[in-house]
Design goal:
The chain has 261 residues and is α+β, with helices and mostly antiparallel strands. The chain folds into 2 domains: 139 residues, no CATH class; 74 residues, no CATH class. 45% of the residues lie in helices and 9% in strands. A 5-stranded mixed β-sheet has the order 1-2-3-4-5, with helices on both faces. Strand 3 and strand 4 form a beta hairpin. It is elongated, with a radius of gyration of 24 Å.
């Protein structure tokens, strides 16, 4: 599995209801462990944990803690003789609400976060998948997560707009994705007049089945290609007029947008 595939698997795991019995195996599965490996751990054949957790030799020792006792469980994993004997690199404890982990072979600070946010640190655990050149990947975990989401959006859009994947329209699709990236960036950096201007407008102006979402986004793009002096003549909808003119050519030319499901 590559980092993008791992990020998808980890994000899906975090979004599911927490299953204290299944989590350690699901976590290992997200990093590419095969079902034969999972079965051996589940049966106890290769699981030598001495704290009631799941211990994978040379990799990780995982414990599901009682609520509010995650730090205590991590201490137990750190002091475990089995952890040392199996040369486990990572220790991980969670109660489904809180999440803590540590790389015993690194000076990096431990991870302490809410369970729902642990995918933000998936790069920390990439050695579990045999990916050892992870310094740059670890530092770019958020970039990889963003890339993964854009890739999934791209794939979903092509399902409903197969013509946008053809040679003739590939440039238009790439241009559309670049415009989206700018809009999300502008929301986060104060370029727009208020936070979530793009996101909220698309949500509020789209009908329930999203059948007009492409029209909403197209009008937003048209607004960002219209100078202030030309706004009255352009007859922009009031909700689109809130978007500023953006020079540099990103929004010039065709403002066609693929249809959304």
């Amino acid at each position: 599995m590559n980092p993008v595939e791992i990020e998808v698997a980890v994000s899906e795991l975090a979004a599911q209801p927490f299953d204290k019995e299944e989590f350690p195996f699901a976590f290992l599965r997200a990093f590419g462990n095969k079902e034969t490996t999972i079965r051996r751990l589940r049966s106890g054949e290769s699981n030598k944990s001495d704290v009631g957790g799941v211990l994978q030799t040379n990799n990780i020792h995982i414990a599901v803690a009682q609520f509010g006792e995650v730090a205590k469980a991590l201490d137990a994993l750190r002091e475990s003789r089995a952890t040392a004997k199996a040369k486990a690199r990572f220790i991980l404890a969670t109660d489904g609400i809180h999440f803590e982990a540590e790389d015993l072979e690194s000076d990096d600070p431990p991870i302490v976060c809410e369970f729902k946010n642990f995918p933000d640190y998936f790069g920390f655990f990439l050695p579990l998948a045999g990916i050892t050149t992870v310094k740059q990947v670890r530092d770019s975990s958020f970039d990889i997560r963003a890339t993964s989401r854009l890739n999934r959006l791209y794939v979903e859009l092509l399902k409903d707009n197969p013509d946008w994947g053809t040679t003739e329209l590939r440039h238009e699709m790439n241009h559309f994705m670049a415009r989206l990236i700018f809009c999300f960036f502008a929301e986060d950096t104060g370029i727009f007049s208020r936070a979530r201007l793009f996101t909220d407008t698309v949500e509020q102006m789209s009908v329930h089945d999203a059948s007009n979402t492409h029209e909403v986004i197209s009008e937003i793009f048209r607004a960002m290609n219209t100078k202030d002096s030309n706004r009255i003549e352009a007859k922009l909808p009031r909700w689109a007029d809130a978007f500023p003119y953006v020079n540099g050519g990103l929004f010039s030319g065709n403002v066609a947008v693929p249809k959304f499901s």
